[in-house]
Design brief:
There is one protein chain. The protein has 155 residues and is of the alpha/beta class. Helices cover 40% and strands 14% of the residues. The chain has helices spanning 18-38, 55-59, 68-82, 98-112, 125-130, and strands spanning 7-14, 64-66, 86-90, 139-143. A 4-stranded mixed β-sheet has the order 2-1-3-4, sandwiched between helices. The protein is globular.
Length: 155
């Protein structure tokens, strides 16, 4: 039988424009993936794939980075290609300033997740309002409409 849940995990960074998004997240993601490469984690990747590449190549088809419209397009492409019904985002990396993370959460909640589900924007705002500090391993999840039970799709 098909799986009830098909998750996908993505590094995600949203900013008001693509250029700003890439500039702001680049040093943190480069450092993270250079460490992964040094640890040999890219040996688990398909043959010919590596973390030891330029940043533009590293992020292509792997991360979701850009303005809200860029992120919606890339997420839809990933969800459709993989048949995912749950998305997990890594949105903060060691050393990243909290204000940038909070801006990503706000843009994700207000401009990205509404494109996927009528309930999805409900998930992130309480985190912002509660002032809960996020760690480098914080995750945000939102179910796509296929994941929601019929009775909970519309409040």
């Amino acid at each position: 039988p098909p799986a009830d849940e098909v998750p996908v995990i993505k590094e995600l960074y949203v900013a008001p424009d693509r250029r700003t998004a890439i500039q702001e997240c680049r040093p943190f993601l480069e450092a993270k993936y250079k460490a992964y490469n040094a640890w040999g984690q890219d040996k688990a990747l398909p043959e010919g794939d590596s973390f030891d590449v330029g940043f533009e190549e590293l992020i292509r088809d792997r991360f979701v980075i850009g303005d809200p419209d860029d992120c919606v397009r890339e997420l839809k492409r990933s969800v459709d290609a993989l048949g995912a019904n749950t998305v997990i985002f890594r949105i903060q990396w060691p050393g990243m300033e909290q204000d940038k993370v909070l801006r990503t959460i706000k843009l994700l909640a207000s401009r990205v997740t509404p494109a996927f589900s009528p309930l999805s924007s409900v998930f992130a705002p309480p985190v912002i309002k509660a002032g809960i500090p996020l760690s480098a391993f914080s995750l945000i999840m939102f179910p796509t409409p296929r994941r929601l039970p019929r009775e909970s799709r519309y409040p």
